[in-house]
Amino acid sequence: MNERTMDNKSPEESSFYHEKGKYSGVLAWLMSTDHKRIGLMYLGALLSFFSVGVTLGVLIRLSLIAPGAILNAQQYNEVFTVHGIIQIFLFIIPGIPVAFGNFFLPIMIGARDVAFPRLNRLTLWLYLAGAAIVMLSLFIKGAPPDTGWTFYAPYSIQTKANVSLAVLGVFVLGFSSIFTGLNFVTTIHRMRAPGMEWFRLPLFVWTLYATGWVQILATPVLAITLVFIVLGRVFGVGFFDPSKGGDPILYEHLFWVYSHPAVYIMVLPAMGIISEIMPTFSRRNIFGYKAIVFSALAIASVGYFVWGHHMFTSGMSDTARIVFSFITFLVAVPSGVKVFNWVATLYKGSIEVDSPLLFALSFIFLFSIGGLTGLIVGSLAPNLHVHGTYFIVAHFHYVMFGGVGFSFLAGLHYWFPKMFGRMFSEKVAKIGWFFFFIGFNVLYFSMFILGYQGMPRRYFEPPPQYHGWSVVSTVGSWLLALGLIIIFSNLISALFKGPKASSNPWGGGTLEWSIPSPPPAENFIEIPVVDSGPYGHGKRE
Amino acid sequence: MAMEKESNAGTAVTAEAQSGVDYTGKKIGMWLFLFTELLFFGGMFLLYSVFRSQYPAEFHSAAQEENLLLGSVNTTILLTSSFTIAVAIAAIRKGNKIFSLYMQTATIMFGICFLIIKYFEWSAKISKGIYPDSPALLSREKGEILFFSLYYVMTGIHGIHVLIGVIAIAIMFVYTRRGVIGRDNFAKLENTGLYWHFVDIVWIYLFPLFYLIT
Amino acid sequence: MDRGTSREPTAGYVHYALIWAALVALLIMTIAIARLSLLANYSVLGSLFIATVKAGLVLIYFMHLKHEGWVVKGMLLLAVAALFFIIALTFVDVWYR
Fold this sequence. Notes:
The complex is a heterotrimer of chains A (541), B (214) and C (97).
Chain A: H1 26-30, H2 35-65, H3 73-92, H4 95-109, H5 117-139, H6 155-158, H7 163-190, H8 203-235, H9 248-282, H10 289-302, H11 318-346, H12 355-377, H13 380-386, H14 390-420, H15 426-452, H16 467-497
Helix pairs in contact in A: 2-3, 2-4, 2-5, 2-16, 4-7, 4-8, 4-14, 5-7, 7-8, 8-9, 8-10, 9-10, 9-11, 9-12, 9-14, 10-11, 11-12, 12-14, 12-15, 14-15, 15-16
Chain B: H1 12-18, H2 23-54, H3 56-63, H4 68-93, H5 97-127, H6 135-138, H7 142-178, H8 187-211
Chain C: H1 13-35, H2 43-62, H3 70-94
């Protein structure tokens, strides 16, 4: 394929990186409404905050095997709170949609940009502003928040920490999320290329659609809940204070009405990436396209109504506990359908185990463990024993980090050549994966054991009988960190020294592989006309 | 450079969307934003309904302290303001720029009147010592504490939305005068109208919940 | 080609005025029902029902829902259903404690 443009420039010279606009320098990026530049800026910010969050995690693990040696009790509470706030609100919720969704959604549907490019830019600014406000709450007079990332009343209302500021930051971040979802839903409705019918959309696009709806319908509930916290702290409004007639369980309801669907905001796009990778590296069509579509929609809708499973020990009514547990079991079904279909895609495929597929296969394995343990914790009787223990910590790290985290890395490796026009070292990527995967399982599987044995979470000084497995877990955290360092060194080095990438190094069939690496500013010279589904016909170039 | 291949297999949707201003897309975007507002206020309505179910008698008696006359006047004001903004949009679509400007102004005036009346209602309560966390309020029954807390929070947040709407319509007024909004380009005004109607609908529900459950 | 316009003809001013009159009439009705304690225990339900009728009029006529396709109507239904079920599920807790 001749990749020179009409004025004989190489792809890199005529890519969106070199587009000249009204501004220059840093402003050319910060003021840009180009979805690709916005996606990359988000990617840089996300990974920076992720590194901070990982560092805090390593710190937590160190403290747990030597309580008091590095952190005192108050500091420990602050560290795990900030670890949660950063990883959840600054990395994983914006995560895949703002980095890969922004970069690839328009291209995958054959459009030049999203429906509202200036709104898109605003979401980036809101994200940075929200992050700044959260950071401010850590360093300004007072103390960093120490409530856990869940900000439960009454402690969040009473603590002297800088909760109001932190919560304001999260509020601003919420709007970034809402407007991203709104933008994506409108884009998918309105900007598909001719012939790009709904059931020809790439599955990643379908998950961005479902996720967009969850962002629109769930995030505002978090917003008003955060307002209630501030009203309680500043004006003494007592909605969650029994002495004023209020009820702290209502806080939990309102909080989890958002925060459960939030995990689907995290995992649906992650599943979308897996659905992209499996057919490409099996060199065949995905198994059960429509089933995967309907599963994504089912996860988004049914997942909206399971929030009470975070509250089984809170004092909720028995009837509510039964209802929520039942719906929780229902929501596992579509996830199972997806796992089945991904594995079935491998069957009779011509499989190339390149690094994106390695990360994707890891996702399937680790997410399945997380999901199955989710059924354990979603059952009423076991939940009473494991709620508030390390079993829960292990469960959600398996689904969020083993799941979404691995999928993020899968997508990063898959789309790296397209975004940056360079290729990384496959060998180093696999070495990095190895340490990361081993470290991950040592770190978190130990926590299942500890939790089963009864080790409580959010305790500064765990009882001594848990020390053995805690040490194992902490060593796992070091291996994991080593793996991450290798992975990111590989990618960063490829940015500067990697060989130039072709437009379709993996043989993908979706539209992003039909344009140069990196893409030109307007994505397509001519808007494509689509006449088939997205998978099973790409060729490596 | 941006050659677009029109195709028989193409959708009119894409043609409209990719070739310039996508009126339908902007409208969908505005509706989606209103859904977020629905869920935002929804959290407050959730609290109201739960607390009301727990303290029905106290909500009933507390509501009697509300000023039904002022509440009714405010409701009439907002309903009428929805009428005027709807007419303002119809007017600009018919090319009646001046009439549209008058109707937009009327809407702004109504919004300001609403806020002024709200101010008087709040002042009256505050001068009686009833405001969140006040000693007078805290000495009341629990249900009454909740009723008045909800009153302040819900009408307060609603009032902020009214203020935002007034400012938005004022900006639309300037755009209309300048011709940015016109007969062939009224999406901005219509979307502002949608927002304003939503704010009206929230009040349509707030009114009976705080003034009429006596 | 649409460029910031709608193909639908606009409603006339009189049409909007009639809707406004209906809204005011409903307002008077709802106040009367409450003041006169008509319908006794069901007055709250009655007030909310009338409020919903009023909201419906604003939605259908002022917000032009009447002229919208199934996309917008379906989305609205989704949002309202979401709110309804959130409140309903919360009541499964609150009512059965």
